[in-house]
Amino acid sequence: MRLAERLQVVKPSATLAVSAKAMELKAQGKKIISLSVGEPDFNTPAHVREAAKAAIDQNFTRYTQVAGIPELRAAVGAYYKKFYDVDVAGKQVVVTNGGKQALYNYFQCVLNPGDEVLIPAPYWVSYPDMVALAGGVPVIVDTLAEHGYKINPADIMRAATAKTRCLVLNSPSNPTGATYTQAELDLLVETCLDKGILVISDEIYDQLVYAPNTPASCAKWFASHPEHIAITNGLAKSFAMTGWRMGWLVAHTPLIDAMDMVQSQSTSNVCSIVQKAALAALTGPWDEVEAMRAAFEQRRNMVMDIIGGWKGVVCPSPAGAFYAFPDVSRYYDHRSPDSVSLCNRLMEEAGVALVPGEAFGAPRCVRLSFALDEATLRTALAAMAQGLGVA
Ligand SMILES: Cc1ncc(COP(=O)(O)O)c(C=O)c1O
């Protein structure tokens, strides 16, 4: 069958390829510990689940406004007052099917063919493909482990051309956990504003930041320059709600109206039941969010203690999110000369599933998730160390 030419610019998800291989080996009876997951191992808090059940029982099961029920849009706006002391109105919010749809539709709404988008690498797997599907050109801006995998204004100046339309920021980062301070974010945004470059800030991990760092956001810049700054976030990572599909985008109203239009012609509203659950999450108690954050911080410390002892492996400590991104290139050899073959070998020989750094534009590294209990993590890291030959 002849498929659309636009598909030539996309590649299948490397993370899904890892899960497929892990499932195949498990089906053959092999024990595989998956460090490749991108979701919390905790359950969604009970009051959120109860709100969903109540929504069903109250027959809140019909179409809603495409951009979300007004009280939920207002609650998302209130999130920015609560955490960043910034006023965001409900009409500056569109509720989306996860942060993923917010990003996808954003690029559909702001890019023209040939527009360049600066994407710092290592990057979250979907950015380049989303940009390409919108007709844009991903421009990868490499960062170094020595700089904590962060870009600086000079990197933007070097990479920007007359065609640069926007910069993607992701702090805390998937896959590196790199987390910008507010001062660092401010400098990057100022540079973009000077050059007329839009900023799309993916803050999906902003609730998962570890001491001594504190959460930072582009929200304050949205307040002063709403037409240049857009922010996406959601409840997947903070409330352990990956399967519910609840995200949002904050932007100035003409862009929100455009997002609403695209969504109205594609998926319509986010599930009505999920919206009620999300409202309960945003307006209810946050103690479980903090408990999960604290657990991730403890695991981060444990994982870094272990990886820190691996000879020749460089791994900046992740200040946020729940991934470590060690540079394991020293252990590449004739059997496994790159991250894909190394991950395949470690899966087959050590029974540990990791994601090759290739998927994130960083072929010297592998990504491991610490969204698993400490005992399982210890077992997996010991097997990985043995498989690499560091133990
Ligand atoms: C950096 C980043 N952005 C966005 C998303 C999308 O999250 P969701 O669509 O589940 O809300 C993810 C999920 O893994 C992510 O890691």
Explain what the structure shows.
With 391 residues, this protein is an alpha/beta fold. It has two domains: 5-43 and 288-388, Alpha-Beta Complex (Aspartate Aminotransferase, domain 1), CATH 3.90.1150.10; 61-283, Aspartate Aminotransferase, domain 2, CATH 3.40.640. It is 41% helix and 13% strand. The protein is built from 13 helices and twelve strands. A seven-stranded mixed sheet has the order 2-8-7-6-5-3-4, with helices on both faces. Strand 6 (198-202), helix 8 and strand 7 (229-234) form a beta-alpha-beta unit. Helix 2 (46-57) crosses helix 10 and helix 4 packs parallel to helix 5 (126-133). It is globular. The termini are far apart. The mean pLDDT is 96. The chain binds pyridoxal-5'-phosphate (PLP). Pyridoxal-5'-phosphate is lined by residues 38, 98-100, 124, 170, 174, 202, 204, 234, 236, 242, 247.
Which short descriptors sum up this protein?
391 residues; three-stranded antiparallel β-sheet; 13% strand; Aspartate Aminotransferase, domain 1; binds pyridoxal-5'-phosphate; Aspartate Aminotransferase, domain 2
| CATH fold-type name of the largest domain | Aspartate Aminotransferase, domain 2
Number of domains: 2
Ligands in the model, by name, code or SMILES, are:
pyridoxal-5'-phosphate
CATH superfamily of the largest domain: Type I PLP-dependent aspartate aminotransferase-like (Major domain)
Profile the largest sheet.
7 strands, mixed
CATH architecture of the largest domain: 3-Layer(aba) Sandwich
The residue-averaged pLDDT reads 96
Distance between the termini: 50 Å
Structural class: alpha/beta
By DSSP (H or I, 4+ residues per run), the number of helices equals: 13
Radius of gyration: 21 Å
Helix proportion range: 40-55%
Assigned CATH class of the largest domain:
Alpha Beta
Number of strands: 12
Shape: globular
Unreliable spans are: none
State the order of secondary-structure elements, H for helix, E for strand.
Answer: HEHHEHEHEHEHEHEEHHHEHEEEH
Major sheet: order of its strands? 2-8-7-6-5-3-4
Strand content: 5-15%
Q: So what's the oligomer here?
A: single chain
